[in-house]
Amino acid sequence: MGTPCHFALFDLQPGFNLDLDLLATRYRELARSVHPDRFADAPEAEQRVALERSASLNDAYQTLKNAPKRARYLLALKGEVPLEVTVQDPEFLMQQMQWREELEDLQDDADLAGVAVFKRRLKVAQEELNESFAACWDDAAQREQAERLMRRMQFLDKLSYEVRQLEERLDD
């Protein structure tokens, strides 16, 4: 028997648009039931199982609550996702370079207000990608597009992490 699907673990239908509050609530409930502390007096084998269940629950939660990871997971359920293919996405490569330059300028100017504006624009771009992905991930004919969108999501996720780090540095 293989490991249960991440969605089944939380009693959710596989899909991209998730109720993240519901996911968090179910995660907390399940985490309590498999918490290793509850098995402190149990035999070692049971403790080990509890630890493994706790770890896989945590992994499933981290995957589903993050949009790009959830996108990759959904695609993987339907077939292999090529690791890093050379991205045939020249339009997005240009966009990436533009964003990177913009971020460097904001960093050089220590422009906290500009960073906030950049962050909002990034969020809008992420929401648009999420909607596009949600509309096509389940359609085999649009598989290539879904993979392209997932890679764009991964890039924006990384970029928004860098933006938060810059924000913290400028805030200090």
UniProtKB/TrEMBL annotation:
Every J domain range: 5-77
Molecular function via GO: ATPase activator activity; protein-folding chaperone binding
Keyword annotations of the record: Chaperone
GO terms of biological process kind: [2Fe-2S] cluster assembly; protein complex oligomerization; protein folding
Record keyword Chaperone present: yes
Highest taxon, organism lineage: Bacteria
One GO term describing the cellular component: iron-sulfur cluster transfer complex
Membrane-crossing segments per the record: none
Subunit-level organization: Interacts with HscA and stimulates its ATPase activity.
Family affiliation: Belongs to the HscB family.
Matching PANTHER family: IRON-SULFUR CLUSTER CO-CHAPERONE PROTEIN HSCB (PTHR14021:SF15)
Database matches in NCBIfam families: hscB, PRK00294.1
Role summary: Co-chaperone involved in the maturation of iron-sulfur cluster-containing proteins. Seems to help targeting proteins to be folded toward HscA.
Protein's UniProt name: Co-chaperone protein HscB homolog
Source organism (scientific name): Pseudomonas graminis
Organism lineage string: Bacteria, Pseudomonadati, Pseudomonadota, Gammaproteobacteria, Pseudomonadales
